[in-house]
């Protein structure tokens, strides 16, 4: 299967592609997360700075919407976006893997290693996207900030459980 060449896809189709990829990552990550809820998660000591559970779904939906729009803006620039799009693909996989490691497999230490890599990739994306399309880079800043909070929560859980 040949990868999609953004230059060969209309702007609307490109936005639909990145929206569908975000939706797929949200659904898969949410499903993997739901598999881990229960006794194991309930018994974890959680940090006092952890936001309420109801906040996570709307925040992740907003962040992945911004990610889709930012990636669409970058992908429209053609060949200069190829490296940024590879980084995007890897971070999307790492994002889903975090849910697998933390919730499904109950391995917060593995999840912490994963999210450390994810943090680095998202910061790199902010820079790469920003060099290609300034607005696209700014669209990723909330994602980087939220991941910083998620990393702090994950770290606290590893150190206190």
The helix/strand series, from N terminus to C terminus, equals HHHHHHH
Instruction: Let me know the number of strands.
Output: 0
Total count of domains: 1
Question: What is the CATH architecture assignment?
Answer: Up-down Bundle
Q: Which fold does the CATH topology refer to?
A: Ferritin
Radius of gyration, in Å, reads 16 Å
Spans of at least 5 consecutive residues with low confidence: none
Kindly estimate the percentage of residues that lie in beta strands according to DSSP. Answer: under 5%
CATH class: Mainly Alpha
Helix count from the secondary structure assignment: 7
Structural class computed from helices and strand pairing: mainly alpha
Q: Spell out the CATH superfamily.
A: TspO/MBR protein
The largest pleated sheet is described as:
none
Distance between the termini: 44 Å
- Shape annotation: elongated
Q: For the residues shown, what is the average pLDDT?
A: 94
Proportion in helices: over 70%
What structural keywords apply?
Ferritin, 78% helix
Walk me through what this model shows.
By secondary structure, this protein is mainly α. It is built from 7 helices and no strands. The protein has helices at residues 11-36, 39-43, 56-75, 82-104, 108-132, 134-139, 141-160. Helix 1 runs antiparallel to helix 3 (56-75) and helix 5 (108-132) packs antiparallel against helix 7. The model has no long low-confidence stretch (mean pLDDT 94).
């Amino acid at each position: 299967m040949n990868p999609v060449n953004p230059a060969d896809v209309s702007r609307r189709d490109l936005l639909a592609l990145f929206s569908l990829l975000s939706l797929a990552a949200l659904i898969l990550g949410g499903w993997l997360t739901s598999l881990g809820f229960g006794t194991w998660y309930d018994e974890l000591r959680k940090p006092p700075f952890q936001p309420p559970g109801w906040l996570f779904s709307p925040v992740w939906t907003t962040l992945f919407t911004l990610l889709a729009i930012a990636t669409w803006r970058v992908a429209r620039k053609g060949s200069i976006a190829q490296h940024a799009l590879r980084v995007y693909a890897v971070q999307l996989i790492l994002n889903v893997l975090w849910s697998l490691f933390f919730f499904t497999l109950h391995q917060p230490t593995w999840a912490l290693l994963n999210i450390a890599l994810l943090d680095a990739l998202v910061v790199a994306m902010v820079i790469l996207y920003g060099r290609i399309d300034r607005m696209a880079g700014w669209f990723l800043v909330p994602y980087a900030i939220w991941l910083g909070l998620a990393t702090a929560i994950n770290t606290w859980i590893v150190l206190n459980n």
